[in-house]
């Protein structure tokens, strides 16, 4: 949706964020090595990206003279490093992994290379095969400025065997109140079994992602249509109290420092009865190489309260900074990692459960993938297709995004809010204290958007 005028331009706001996040730089991108050109790729550390790195020698063999160097970092660190480098034109990276949060903002600021000419000149790449909502979320003025590696919504995984043993039934479209009741019945401290795993780790892309979907369906929002901060509203308070109470009473041990990776490990090792998170989790849950519970999980839509849906929309994607030196070589790598052929290489090499999901429609037509992903393929597609503000929110908001507010300041604001909520999960402060402090942060942001209304 169009953004209202404001005192600061998005570019200046993001540059301010980048200045706060600035970390020590690494060797310049596009460096000439002993055997040719080296592309430096900044990438988030998770299982799907690790598979891509493991296969990268195939790209190098097919592209003599191009060598790859990966800078692989945990999510929060990767966001900070990539933001600071791209915003300041640091030139450390030839290719960066970003999301649908950054892409339209950075494209508007001129920080990213327009990929549409490269895509149009690549026979067989087939951009029409991308899931439309994912493709559109990475476009600016009708042109793609990033290409998706995988896409996701959010849903709930649950242990069917544990439910059967306890005589419990998972509703097809559960509410959060029902999930809380089920978590209480399945929680077993003596057996080391958490009723549910929920992120508590600080970070706007960590705990705040699932929490914001809970807030949305409870009727909350970060700002009203006039950019008045709403973090102490009754709806926001109800959502925060519910989330904190659920994870404190029936969540995993050490929840305040648990993110996607930590919850994924706990669930796959049989230490949680339910897990609400990104749909991409299913590949790990069903991978015999990493999971003890293969075939034991069911998957249902993200729980709701006052809305018909509550799942998020997100994609990890590859983009090219405007200052990248060897753009043709960078595109060749980006195309390789996001092409239909790569999907098949992952499936035949590592197993079809490890294929990057939620990106290409053709993936869901591969017979081997259909068989491997029969428990979660359709719930993933349904979640992505239904992830709109109209379905997941009760009232209009002045910003784009579902599990984030698509404004430059949200990297800082969201991280600050998540730190307060994490402290509440840890029992260090009350929910009221967390929200009062968060409201002050949000009021400062909202004021800057109101000044030129």
UniProtKB/TrEMBL annotation:
<keyword id="KW-0813">Transport</keyword>
<protein>
    <submittedName>
        <fullName>ABC sugar transporter, substrate-binding component</fullName>
    </submittedName>
</protein>
<dbReference type="InterPro" id="IPR006059">
    <property type="entry name" value="SBP"/>
</dbReference>
<keyword id="KW-0762">Sugar transport</keyword>
<dbReference type="Pfam" id="PF01547">
    <property type="entry name" value="SBP_bac_1"/>
</dbReference>
<dbReference type="InterPro" id="IPR050490">
    <property type="entry name" value="Bact_solute-bd_prot1"/>
</dbReference>
């Amino acid at each position: 949706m169009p953004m209202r005028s404001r005192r600061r331009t998005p570019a200046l706001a993001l540059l301010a964020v980048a200045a706060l996040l600035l970390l020590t730089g690494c060797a310049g991108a596009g460096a000439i090595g002993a055997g040719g050109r080296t592309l430096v790729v900044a990438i988030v550390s998770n299982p799907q990206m690790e598979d891509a790195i493991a296969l990268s020698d195939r790209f190098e063999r097919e592209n003599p003279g191009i060598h790859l160097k990966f800078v692989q970092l945990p999510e929060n660190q990767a966001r900070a490093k990539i933001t600071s480098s791209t915003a300041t034109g640091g030139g450390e990276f030839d290719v960066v992994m970003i999301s649908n949060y950054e892409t339209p903002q950075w494209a508007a600021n001129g920080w990213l290379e327009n990929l549409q000419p490269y895509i149009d000149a690549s026979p067989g790449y087939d951009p029409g095969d991308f899931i439309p909502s994912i493709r559109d979320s990475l476009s600016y003025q009708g042109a793609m400025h990033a290409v998706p590696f995988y896409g996701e919504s959010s849903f709930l995984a649950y242990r069917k065997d544990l439910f059967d043993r306890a005589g419990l039934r998972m509703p097809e479209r559960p509410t959060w109140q029902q999930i809380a009741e089920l978590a209480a019945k399945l929680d077993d401290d003596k057996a080391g079994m958490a009723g549910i795993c929920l992120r508590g780790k600080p970070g706007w892309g960590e705990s705040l992602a699932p929490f914001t979907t809970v807030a949305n369906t409870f009727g909350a929002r970060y700002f009203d249509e006039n950019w008045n901060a709403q973090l102490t509203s009754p709806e926001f308070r109800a959502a925060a109290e519910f989330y904190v109470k659920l994870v404190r009473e029936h969540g995993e041990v050490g929840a305040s420092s648990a993110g996607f990776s930590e919850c994924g490990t706990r669930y796959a090792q049989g230490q949680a009865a339910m897990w609400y998170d990104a749909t991409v989790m299913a590949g790990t849950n069903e991978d015999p190489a990493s999971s003890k519970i293969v075939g034991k999980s069911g998957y249902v839509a993200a729980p709701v309260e006052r809305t018909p849906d509550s799942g998020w929309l997100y994609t990890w994607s590859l983009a090219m900074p405007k200052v990248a030196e060897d753009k043709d070589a960078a595109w060749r790598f980006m195309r390789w990692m996001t092409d239909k052929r790569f999907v098949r290489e992952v499936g035949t090499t590592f197993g079809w459960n490890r294929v990057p999901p939620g990106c290409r429609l053709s993936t869901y037509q591969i017979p081997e993938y259909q068989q491997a992903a029969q428990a979660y393929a359709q719930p993933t597609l349904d979640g992505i297709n239904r992830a709109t503000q109209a379905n997941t929110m009760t009232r209009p908001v002045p910003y784009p995004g579902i599990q984030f507010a698509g404004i430059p300041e949200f990297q800082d604001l969201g991280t600050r809010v998540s730190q307060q909520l994490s402290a509440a999960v840890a029992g260090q402060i009350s929910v009221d204290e967390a929200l009062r402090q968060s409201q002050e942060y949000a009021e400062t942001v909202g004021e800057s958007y109101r000044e030129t209304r």
